[in-house]
Design a protein that fits this description.
The structure is a homotrimer of 207-residue chains.
Chain A (H helix, E strand, L loop, with lengths): L10 H25 L4 H28 L7 H27 L7 H20 L8 H31 L4 H35 L1
Chain lengths: 207, 207, 207
């Protein structure tokens, strides 16, 4: 008789881990793009592909949520976690697309800072998610605090970079473009913070 | 003895159908405005009126939700569906108001494309809603997929039209105005996609 | 034997009242800033401090929510109320920070109007919250309607002020700055309306 020894709900964790691996890959492309700007167009295509895979993972999680009677985490937490991770990816992809369609010539210093912050946040997310299988509160919360701290840093980068853009009295159209790109990058870090908020809430409930 | 044969909760469906008729009317005004731009001011007034009616329908749904003990759909789904439909209307109205207050002189090609997409999405919504009374999953999901596809199309129009705006090197103030109007129109299509997402989730639960 | 006569859940109300006192203080600083613009930098620092206190109150409410088994209001309402109040504060703080970092020279007439509207909304919120302890529906709903009316007024101020900005054909970079500041101020009034929406829903459930 064939049957699975692993309860099927376990697979939520598998899907979340695939999502976080996906996130990490996207963040690395973003860093590479800002470091080697000549690859911007190719990297935007790879990013689009990763975002597409992220969408499919998200749909799989949602479909499974509807089919599964007893879930290993609260249904709303599974939904919130999947959405938050998908949002991080969406904003990375949008920023990467704008770099191409706005015909930006080079990555600015703040763009590099944002990419580095997002990469560090996704590394933290990638560390946390496997630990949700067997919650160790202290261990997880430490990483959530770090994600939070990184978001505050991104907030500072946004404020300073936008103030500097206006200060530069450059071409208003270029100011508009970069403002939007910085905004998209900062929103990616906000969404990463959302991931941490959901994880914190899961951990607190289980404590 | 006078009493209603129709259980009172049925009226949620009536209210949703009124909302979708309202949405359809608003989308048609938007199309007419972009086709015959000399009517922009009159049409903005009619749109404002429709948005006002939409608000009242929304309030009626919410008030009824608080009064009704057993609802024909999950409470949160009723709330989400009413909100999503109200959001579509709000963004159409906001875009229509900006065309007047920003003293725009004519409708651009992307504005017409957005209006056409929104009109098609509201037609799909108008087809779906009456079928929620007696859920036929396949039939409904087909329309949800089409609404989704239309949102992807609007996304493409936004990306191309904003890139073209910047490319034109036109007056920065005009670029700002159109960017905002395109953004509002695209957000109307996002919200229409939200309607489809809620409907899909209702259908999956009932399946 | 020492024990508290006040059930511990009562303290949610205490925390909400502290939050609303905090909101009121922030709104008064905003009014003072637009009236006496030479204090803009000092006031932004005070605002930042108040926002920080608001964050701590918010975290305390959330942590207590996780620890408390029986809450005096629905859990989701406590969450929504705390979030909405925190959002009002965040937008006030963001607007106040932009006035400094964008090196704005003086407060415009619309900035003063927004500050006055927000101050009136926070006064209404400050009146409502203590009444949640012992709900008197009519009394509370009257204030919710007023908060709503004020939000409509802010909406009008936004539309008129942004149209006037474009009409002025001024420096595009200055137009961008003020547009963003007006937007942040208007979003503070939106979030104040959210507070009223949550309160209305609490009152309707208890009626």
């Amino acid at each position: 008789m064939a049957f699975s020894l692993v309860p099927r709900e376990e697979s939520f964790f598998d899907l979340f881990e695939k999502s976080s691996t996906n996130l990490l890959a996207a963040a690395r492309i973003l860093v590479e793009t800002t470091d080697h700007f000549d690859r911007v167009a190719d990297n935007a295509k790879r990013m689009k592909q990763i975002e597409h895979e992220g969408d499919q993972l998200m749909h799989e999680i949602m479909a499974r949520l509807h089919r599964t009677f007893i879930t290993p985490l609260d249904r709303e937490d599974i939904h919130a976690l999947a959405s938050a991770m998908d949002d991080v990816l969406d904003f990375m992809e949008e920023a990467s697309e704008r770099l191409v369609s706005y015909r930006v010539r080079e990555a600015t210093a703040p763009a590099k800072e944002f990419a580095a912050i997002i990469a560090r946040q996704t590394e933290e997310i990638h560390r946390i998610l496997p630990r949700l299988r067997k919650v160790k509160a202290d261990d997880i919360l430490k990483h959530c605090i770090e994600i939070n701290r990184l978001e505050n840093e991104a907030d500072r980068v946004l404020r300073e970079s936008v103030a500097a853009l206006f200060e530069s009295r450059g071409d208003p159209l270029d100011v508009m473009k970069w403002r939007e790109i910085y905004d998209l990058l900062e929103r990616a870090t906000d969404k990463a913070e959302n991931v941490a908020v959901v994880v914190e809430s899961i951990v607190l409930k289980m404590a």
